[in-house]
Structure to design on (72 residues):
């Protein structure tokens, strides 16, 4: 079956320049079972790599295509 699906997703962008090259401070907690850091809490402080300064983030809708070519 060559069926493709789209999934509604969100991403945070910089409220000043609209870039998605942003980071957010967070508290991470080690998960022994998964052997990975997990975000325990997001903090209010966010930075934009493009602006090079603190910013506030805005969540926008994106659409992610899920198809055979996307999975390869
Ligand atoms: Zn920015």
């Amino acid at each position: 079956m060559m069926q493709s699906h789209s999934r509604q997703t969100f991403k945070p962008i910089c409220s000043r320049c609209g870039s998605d090259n942003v980071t957010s401070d967070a508290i991470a907690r080690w998960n022994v079972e998964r052997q990975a850091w997990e975000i325990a809490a997001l903090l209010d402080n966010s930075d934009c790599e493009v602006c090079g300064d603190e910013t506030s983030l805005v969540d926008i809708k994106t659409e992610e295509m899920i198809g055979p070519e996307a999975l390869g």
Observations:
- The chain has a mean pLDDT of 89.
- Residues 21 and 49 are 6 Å apart (CA to CA).
- The first strand starts at residue 5 and ends at 14.
- The two ends are 15 Å apart (CA to CA).
